[in-house]
Design a protein that fits this description.
The chain has five helices and seven strands. By secondary structure, it is an alpha/beta fold. The chain has a single domain, classed as Vaccinia Virus protein VP39 (Rossmann fold), CATH 3.40.50.150. A seven-stranded mixed beta sheet has the order 3-2-1-4-5-7-6, sandwiched between helices. Helix 1 packs across helix 2 and helix 4 packs parallel to helix 5. The two termini are 25 Å apart. The C terminus is likely disordered.
């Protein structure tokens, strides 16, 4: 796995054993679409694995990344990747269940400009994560939720806080992008 854009372009990242990292093709397409949205953004990378999506956002100019994973091996790998890139000061790895993290951020009144969801396939975590984000509002005004999931996952389509603005299939991966429902932001192009 490597960083594909920005100041860390072509730098390799360690990936923990047993983690399905998002493919370079999907990651490139995703950041082609949202590269301007991450500049100066506060990003949250849930189910972070290697930290690839949060680190890519930092490479493109995000001001801060919070990287959450429930596996200690993933958090250890994230620390290693951040140290190798000398970007630890802009990132906060957190060892915690993603759903608990969402609720905790809500209780602390934290808001994020971009939230990445790249959960394990076949477990229904995509829909559960979106439902939890819909209930616990931690998405900043005009913010984005970016989901990569198995293309056959039945992802709920209607949410009160955000609306789907993109759905694209890449092999067995489905890329979904939602924008917060405010200030007629749905008409904005990404």
């Amino acid at each position: 796995m490597k960083v594909i854009r920005g100041i860390f372009k072509n730098r390799y990242l360690s990936v923990p054993k047993g983690i399905r990292a998002v493919s370079l093709r999907v990651k490139k397409s995703l950041f082609d679409l949202i590269k301007e949205e991450v500049v100066e953004a506060k990003v949250l990378d849930l189910f972070s694995g290697s930290g690839s999506l949060g680190i890519e956002a930092l490479s493109l100019g995000a001001k801060e990344a919070v990287l959450v994973d429930i596996k200690k091996s993933s958090i250890d790998t994230i620390y290693k990747n951040l140290a190798a890139l000398k970007v630890s000061a802009k990132a906060t790895p957190i060892l915690k269940d993603a759903f608990k993290a969402i609720k905790d951020f809500y209780a602390q009144e934290e808001k994020f400009d971009v939230i990445f969801l790249d959960p394990p396939y076949y477990k229904g975590f995509s829909t559960k994560s979106l439902q939890t984000l819909d209930e616990y509002d931690i998405l900043a005004s005009s913010g984005l939720v970016v989901v990569t999931c198995y293309y056959k996952d039945s992802v709920e389509k209607e949410f009160k806080r955000f609306s789907k603005i993109l759905s694209k299939k890449y092999g067995q991966t489905l890329l979904l992008i939602y924008r917060k429902n405010e200030e007629s932001s749905l008409s904005r192009n990404i």
